[in-house]
Amino acid sequence: MNIPDKVINRLTLYHFILDDLREDEQYISSSKIAELLNIDNSQVRKDLKYLDKPGKARLGYNAKTLKKAIEEKLAFKQTKDVFIIGAGNLGSALAKYSNFKDYGLNVLAMFDNDVNKIGTTINGKEVFNITKVGNLSQRLGVDIAVLTVPRESAKSVANYLAGSGIKYIWNFTTCILDVPKGIKVCNENLIGSFLQFTNNDEVKNNNNDN
Fold first, then answer.
1. In Å, how far from its chain's centre is CA 49?
2. Fewest CB within a 10 Å sphere: which of 11, 23, 75, 106?
3. Which neighbouring-strand residues pair with 60?
């Protein structure tokens, strides 16, 4: 069963909640999850149906069982090797984010065109010349790239990646990419998420009160 992208996103948030539960919290209700995320309870129950793990009346869902079910459904334990393209502030921060491994994402190397960065290491990840992407992609079997280059070079770099064996681009730039057919792009819209939050009526009202 294919899971819609929005459901996958919410299931990862549910996993965050389950991961933070105390050892003595054996069960969690859909209403508790909904309350923590400020979403509708019926949406949580609908999402959890993808896991085929029914809850118990008046108790809710077994936390450990539900957590494991999410991990299995979303293949957290299946390692996915990736390259980070762009060794600037954002790329470096992502390379240092240790929690990625908990979700099966393994950063193998970084790439840049800055001679001052090439040959250095960031959190144990070597920074290679971007011209090495194709060779290393083929040798290591990596087809996923995290794009963190400046906006002005994002399109050309994305097309270069597409011609170098990369099939999936996780785009952290503010540029909408036009890539060849067959290349999948996931746009990480940090600005959009921020504006959704700050344009929330409650947030605006709180700001107006100050």
1. 22
2. 23
3. 56
Give the span between the Cα atoms of 164 and 50, in whole angstroms.
36
Integer CA distances (angstroms), 96 to 82, 89, 92, in order: 14, 11, 6
In the block, which residue shows the tokens 């190397």? 109
Coil, strand, or helix at residue 203?
Answer: helix
Is residue 112 within 8 A of residue 135, CB to CB? The reply is: no
Q: How far apart are CA 21 and CA 67, in angstroms?
A: 11
Cβ burial, residue 143 (10 Å; 0-12/13-18/19+): buried
31-41, pLDDT tens digit by residue? 999 999 999 99
| E strand map for the chain | 27-28, 61-62, 80-85, 105-112, 121-122, 125-129, 144-147, 168-171, 184-187
The structural domains of the chain, ordered by start, are 5-72 (1.10.10.10), 80-192 (3.40.50.720)
C-alpha dihedral, 150 to 152 to 155 to 158, nearest 10°: -20
Query: In whole angstroms, what is the distance from residue 117 CA to residue 26 CA?
Result: 48
Q: Is the dihedral of CA 164, 114, 184, 17 positive or negative?
A: positive
